Structure formats: structure tokens, C-alpha cells
Amino acid sequence: MPCPEVVTGHVAIPGEDFERIQRSVDRGQNMWRLSPVRTAQEVGIVHLGLRMNDVYTFVEQYRDADSGLMHAVVRVKHRNCTYLVNLYQPEKQGPSGIWVVESVTEI
After folding, report:
1. What distance in Å separates the CA atoms of residue 58 and residue 38, rounded to the nearest whole number?
2. Cα dihedral angle (69, 25, 15, 66), rounded to 10 degrees?
3. Does 66 have pLDDT greater than 90?
4. Residues 6+ away with beta carbon under 8 Å from 97
5. Is the residue at 3 inside a domain?
6. Does a structural domain hold residue 4?
């Protein structure tokens, strides 16, 4: 694996309380959680081995037919590796809902 510092697979961040995060955003804090690209950056840098100077590109956003949850995909170019960061909205759907990282896949 050419970029072993990057965490791939299902992402579960210890202590990440979606309800609490949504309440803080509703109060005007951590507004970056409303953007899938900014969430991929912030969570990726702190928890997944990505860097601020990596290239983050929005790919798509869609509603899962089974769960009804909104999902988004962000492509990240990290050194000579490329990843897809999959995110979803666990609390509210739409522009006021937070995004959380679900998984990271190397492509």
C-alpha cells in the first residue's frame, strides 16, 4: 500500500455523538459539518491521516432509496494515492443536516 498512513474502510470515531454534533451546529458552532467537503477535510486531517494540502473534490450527493438518508462522496488526492470518502447525514436531511464520514476507499 503506497499511503499506509491513511485509514481506509468503515470509519467509527470514538466519542462521535451525532445528536450532540447536530445540536452544536444548530446553535451555530462547527458549521463546517454542513459541507461534505469540509467534513472530509476536518475529520480526515484529525482522524484519518489526510492532510490540509490534499486535493478534496466533491463528486456527488444522493438519497439512499432504502434508508432515505442523504449521502455524499468526496474524492481526495493524497500524495500518489486517491481515495473516495463516503459521508452521510445521520440526524437531519438537507442543508441543515450534519455530515459524518462513513468510509474511506482507495481507488
Report:
1. 10
2. 0
3. yes
4. 22, 34, 70, 89, 91
5. no
6. no
CA distance 14 to 34: 20
Distances in Å between the Cα of 16 and the Cα atoms of 36, 43, 72, 102 are 16, 11, 19, 12
- What's the whole-number mean pLDDT along residues 44-72? 96
Predicted confidence (pLDDT) at residue 1 exceeds the cutoff of 90: no
Cβ(85)–Cβ(11) below 8 Å: no
Tell me phi and psi for residue 25, to 5 degrees: -65, -40
pLDDT tens digits, one per residue of 15-45: 899 999 999 999 999 999 999 999 999 999 9
Cβ atoms of 33 and 39 within 8 Å: the answer is yes
What's the structural domain count of the chain? 1
Give pLDDT, residue 43.
Answer: 97
Q: Residue 62: give the domain boundaries.
A: 9-106
Q: Smallest Cα–Cα separation from 3: which of 60, 59, 57, 44?
A: 44
Q: Indicate whether 88 belongs to any domain.
A: yes
